Amino acid sequence: MRTVELHCLIVDDSRRFLQAACRLLELQGVRVVGVASTGSEAGALVSALRPDVALVDIGLGEESGFDVADRLDGVPVIMISARDADDLVHLVEASRAIGFLSKSGLSGPAIRELLSAHRGT
C-alpha cells in the first residue's frame, strides 16, 4: 500500500533545528512545504500553502507556541519542544494542539500516528 505524501509546516526559531528537521522528515516521506520562525510568518504560510499539519515549537523566543497554535486555523497542530513531555502534558492538553512530540522523537511515522488518531482512522 502506498503512503499518501504528507505536507508539513514547521514553526521554530532555531535555524539549526529547522534544517535538521527538514532533512529528517523529507527522508521519511514528509514533504516540508514551508518553515517559519514567527507566528505571523506561520499564519501567512498556512493560508498560502495549506499544509496537512503544522509542527509548532512551544518556545518561539518572544512568542508562545501555544498562542501561535491558537491562531493557525484550519490545520492540525502538533506542539514540539526539546523539553520533557511530562513538564508540558497539561499545557498541551489544554491547547488546541492534537498532540506533542519531543524534538528528539520527531519522525514521519510519529506525525502520521498523531494525525491518524486525531482523524479517527
Automatic annotation (TrEMBL):
Q: Which SUPFAM superfamilies match?
A: CheY-like (SSF52172)
BP terms from Gene Ontology: phosphorelay signal transduction system
Keyword Phosphoprotein in record: yes
Which ranges carry the Response regulatory domain? 7-118
Q: Which UniProt keywords apply?
A: Phosphoprotein
* Positions bearing 4-aspartylphosphate: D57
Record carries keyword Magnesium = no
Q: Which domain of life is it from?
A: Bacteria
From the Swiss-Prot or TrEMBL record, give the protein name. Answer: Response regulator receiver domain-containing protein
Instruction: Give the taxonomic lineage as stored in the record.
Output: Bacteria, Bacillati, Actinomycetota, Actinomycetes, Streptosporangiales
